[in-house]
Write a structure and sequence with these properties.
The protein contains 14 helices and 15 strands. The strands form 3 sheets. Strands 3, 4, 5, 6, 7, 8, 9, 10 and 11 form a 9-stranded mixed β-sheet that branches. Strand 6 and strand 7 form a beta hairpin. Helix 8 packs parallel to helix 9 and helix 12 runs parallel beside helix 14. It is globular and about 70 Å long. Bound molecules: pyridoxal-5'-phosphate. The site of pyridoxal-5'-phosphate has 14 residues, from helix 6.
Length: 466
């Protein structure tokens, strides 16, 4: 009886410290042994206390790692995605691209803060590979350096996702992987199904390649599968270009059940799915979700990703697991590029082999989960009450809907003040998202970032009070 009282009393003390912020979200709790010593209690009491905290969702146990405080809870407010009947858009004209913002923290581009890039260990790997006896600068395999493919394969296998190195093809980033996949399975004029809204870079790519676009509505669960199936059944589309995890710009993900259904449809109707999975490993929760490719038994999914969001965009390294299109894909790479920058591939292989990559992703994800809650907390406090913020489980962006505000106009005004955000219009061929905007949350929320957010909220308040 006394044991019961003791562990609950202790658990309540820990809960109070978590709620007051004295113990930070995502931080590691003392090991059970240390907890016993700190409180002069038995292992049974310590274990009962941690179990109580776990059952009440305050902490989470990580296998062989210890106990961590859960990420901050944010009030879930679901953004209602617009419902519409999709229709094909041909000859899509895209807005002219803005010059890149380089050097200053930007709320526009989805990327990690420079401080979160692990350049010390990456530089170590660069130095290490030049000292290796077999280091050469000859042409390498067009498919990509074998050592890198093997390391990537091991890395994904450890996440429970089988990714044979013989089937992987290295590319110059994710967008390059997607471009090559599109060229493998479609030709100009063909219709490609995408989710609505969709990452602006993919829309630009489809427009440059002269592909027609069919936007399929997003839903709270993922994507409107009925409309997609109709398009597949009616042979309206040649391929799909989809993201199943932490989609850009909304941050939402498909359930495993939807992933499986989607792959079954692709198999049934023999429609390739190009999967852009660049944000999968950026998870604000403790688990890394599975890609569509995991459910693909017949090779209809071409899985594309890169290290641009997880590690460093400047490396320009990505990959594709092209499934049944492997031979054609490799042929195209041979013709197009004659392989890749070998030192960079070797350095990345060394970085992954030393387990720096896996450790880095964990560290970054922990930081991003906190940043994401901080951004949301600030925005919920300062934006008009009617604003809807989609709470993502991962990724680097926040999607916000502010009724009655023209975000294109807002973006222009903010740019004059040196603040860069993306307006909703950029993410669609329709005008459905004129009142939406996308913010990068990869930046550490510093005073400078908070003052940018404050100005954004002030301008929004002015617009809505007109
Ligand atoms: C969905 C998506 N795919 C691809 C990319 C580009 O990836 P990479 O830099 O590896 O080409 C981005 C960049 O923002 C993205 O958001």
């Amino acid at each position: 009886m006394r044991v019961t009282v003791k562990y609950i009393t202790l658990a309540r003390q820990v809960i109070a410290s978590i709620e007051k912020g004295h113990i930070e979200a995502n931080s590691k709790l003392p090991s059970l042994r240390v907890f016993c010593q700190l409180h002069y209690i038995s292992m049974t009491t310590a274990l009962a206390c941690y179990r109580y905290l776990e059952q009440h969702d305050y902490i989470i146990a990580e296998y062989k790692k210890g106990y961590y405080v859960q990420p901050k809870k944010t009030e879930k407010r679901i953004v209602n995605f617009p419902t519409f009947q999709s229709s094909v858009r041909t000859k899509v004209i895209r807005p002219e691209l803005q010059a890149d913002v380089i050097g200053r923290p930007s709320l526009a581009t989805a990327q990690l803060d420079a401080k979160l890039i692990d350049d010390a260990m990456l530089k170590r790997s660069f130095r290490a590979i030049t000292k290796q006896a077999d280091f050469t600068l000859k042409y390498d395999e067009s498919q990509g350096n074998q050592r890198l493919r093997e390391q990537l394969s091991k890395h994904f296998n450890s996440q429970g996702f089988s990714c044979p190195h013989e089937d992987l093809v290295i590319t110059h980033g994710c967008l390059d992987a997607v471009l090559m996949a599109l060229e493998c399975v479609s030709k100009p004029g063909d219709v490609i199904a995408i989710t609505s809204p969709c990452y602006s870079g993919l829309l630009d790519l489809l427009s440059v390649l002269d592909r027609a676009i069919l936007e399929i509505p997003s839903t709270a669960e993922g994507i409107e599968l009925k409309q997609l199936e109709q398009a597949m059944k009616g042979k309206k589309i040649t391929a799909c270009l989809l993201t199943a995890n932490h989609q850009n710009p909304t941050g939402h993900s498909l359930s495993n059940q939807q992933k499986q259904q989607l792959v079954e449809l692709a198999t049934q109707y023999k429609i390739p799915i190009i999967e852009d999975d660049v944000f999968r490993e950026i998870s604000h929760q403790r688990t890394i979700p599975l890609p569509l490719k995991y459910f693909d038994q017949h090779g209809w999914v071409m899985w594309c990703s890169s290290v641009s969001k997880t590690l460093a965009p400047g490396l320009r390294i990505g990959w594709c697991l092209p499934g049944r299109f492997k031979n054609k894909y490799i042929q195209q790479r041979m013709i197009r590029t004659l392989g890749h920058n070998q030192p960079i591939q070797l350095a990345l292989a060394d970085y992954i082999a030393n387990e720096y990559y896996a450790a880095h992703i964990k560290k970054v994800n922990r930081a991003l989960a906190v940043h994401c809650s901080d951004y949301i907390e600030f925005l919920q406090l300062h934006l008009p009450k009617e604003s809807e913020i989609f709470i993502p489980n991962g990724g680097l962006v926040l999607w916000i809907k502010i009724s009655k505000v023209n975000t294109e106009k807002l973006t222009t005004i903010l740019l004059q003040q040196g603040i860069d955000i993306k307006s909703g219009n950029l993410f669609s061929t329709t005008k459905l998202y004129q009142d939406c905007l996308r913010l990068n949350i990869g930046q550490i929320p510093t005073e400078q970032i908070y003052s940018q957010l404050a100005l954004l909220c002030k301008l929004v308040q002015c617009e809505t009070n007109r």
